[in-house]
Each structure stands twice: as C-alpha cells, then as structure tokens.
Amino acid sequence: MASAPETIAQHVLRALMALSVVFGAAQLGIYLAEEGIAGFAEPWRAVVYGMLVAAIAADFAAIVVLDRKRKVHAARMVARGLVALLLLAFVFDVLFVASTPLSSVLIFQFVCTMVYQMANDPNLDRHAPREGGFRGAIPLSFFNLFWIFTICSVLGLIGETLVSLVRDGHWESRAGFVFGPFSPIYGVGAVLITAALNLFHDRNPVALFLIGGTVGAVFEYFAGWFFETAFGIVAWSYEGHPFNFHGHTSLPMAAVWGLIGLGWMKLALPYVMLFIDRIPLRMRVPLTAVGAVLLLTDAILTVVALDCWYQRMLGNPISTPWQELCAQHFDDEFMRKRFETMSMWPVLADR
What we know:
Radius of gyration: 21 Å
Helix content: 55-70%
Mean pLDDT: 83
Number of domains: 2
Number of helices: 11
Distance between the termini: 58 Å
Strand order of the largest sheet: 1-4
Order of helices and strands: HHHHHHHEEEHHHHE
Low-confidence stretches: 126-132
Number of strands: 4
Structural class: mainly alpha
Strand content: under 5%
C-alpha cells in the first residue's frame, strides 16, 4: 500500500532541522576564524566545544535522514538525546565561550528540536494507542515533561515562599526567572526524577529512594556548581553541614531527595497527570507551544540578565545592546530584589 503523501509541515520541519545543521557549522566556523583556538582560555575547551557542535550537527542530520525514511520513532529518540546535547553546549558556551551568536544558534536549534518533538508526539493523549507502546509510569513525551516542569516550578516556588514566610517571619522573593512565578530548580528536579524513576515506578520503594536520592543530589550539586562557576552566585550552601560536598549538596539532602522522589512517584505524580490530562486534546499543541516559547524566552532573559549583572559587579563598562537593555530593565536593584536569596561574588566565578 502506498504511503500517505507528505505534508507541507513535514517539509518545513525538515528544512528547519537542515538549517540547524548549516547554522551551527557556519557559526562555529566564523567564531574559529575570528578568534581561533586562542579565543578560548585553554585549547581543550575549543576541542570539547567543537566536538559538541559537531555532535549536534550530526544529530540534526540523522533526524532529517530518519524522518525522510519515515522512521519517525527513531528520529524522536535522537531528538531526545539532542536536547541533552544542546543544554550541555549552552552551559559550556555560558561558562567558557560567551559568544552571543553561538548562543543564538543553540537557542534556534533548541526551538527546532522542540517543534519537531511536538509535531511528532504520539503521546499527546495519554490514553490513546501509541506507536510501539511504552513502559513506565507515564510516556516521557515533551508534552508531559513540559507541563510537569511548569507545574512543579510554580508549586515549588509557592511552597518555598510559604516555608520561608513561616520560618523567617517576612516575605522574601524566591523566584528563579526574571518574569513569572517560577522556580525552575523544582521544575528541572521533577523532570529529572520522573525520567530517572519512570521505569522503576513499580519497584521496591528502597530502589526508588536510592535512585531518587542519587539523581537529586547530583542535580543539586551541578546546579550549585554551575551558578558559582558561571556567575559567582551562591544560591544555597551546605558548608558546615555534615557530609557536604563542596557546599553544593550533602548526604542528608540526598536522603531528602530520595524521600521526595519516592513521594513524587507514588503520591504526587498520578494527581499531576490527572490535571495534565484535563487539557483538551485539540488545545494541547498550541498551549504547550506558546507556553514553551514564553518560558524559553524567560529563561534566556534570565541568563542574560544574570550575566549582565555579573559584568556590572566586575566593573566592566556597558558595551553591547544586551547590556544596555539589562541596565535599563534589570538593573542591580531589580536583580537584588528579584533574587533575594542569591549572593553574587564574582571572585568565585571561573570563566
């Protein structure tokens, strides 16, 4: 039987993925031509970054080929791995490269990957038949993970604010983005724990506790290390606590993460999914797409605002349009009030 004709949307998606390959290669070539290996503080950074960009380009090319051959399931699997590569490259760029053009390409590539996954997501209806079925508590689709991230970012902020209010007796801003009631540390933590424990949801609670504790502690350590290394920011510290790891996390906190993971999978996640399932099927793609664009924009502005704040704390003059924008709308007073629990010490950064 002849296969269904391809739609314009499919051709557009492939074109976007192909552009991601071209833009990535072109921007890396331009950067190396202008800066060379000397543009990096250490040569190994240029090598690692080049490998990351090459791997990203290869993944995009693989998605185009697989999609062209109608192997959509395999293409989606590659796209999932591509998200991790893009995030890793973005972190590397912020820490060691600080190239606005390259960051822009990575953002464009991330958006293309997001659009592709949304357009080819067979799990938009959790109770509908799925290609090849799925194992685990829930399908790890972009739709499900996006809304888990969003809901937990909001609930985490509310919970932390209330705890702070009761404990300290005064209101304190606990926001993690420059706009909106979001604390992404909770959203990312929920997504990571969901992904890590999804296949083990019906296993022994001890296994869930151990895996959740390990994933949570590693994530907390990495997040603390990243903020400190990139911007000299100390958002939390376990210095002086028993069995702490460079102040970024501790063994007791790993136990807390383990309990959170256990409670999340056994108690909270089913109710969160019931709420997500109430989103009308025909509204899922547009709502998720608009929400993802808004949150991605918020995240980008937050990273840019933090970097500009860091540059101002170093005493560097304003020299770019981004820095001028941040000086007007995200000045030092705004940043201190918005991120009250963060302390910035540029001397701690290693960039």
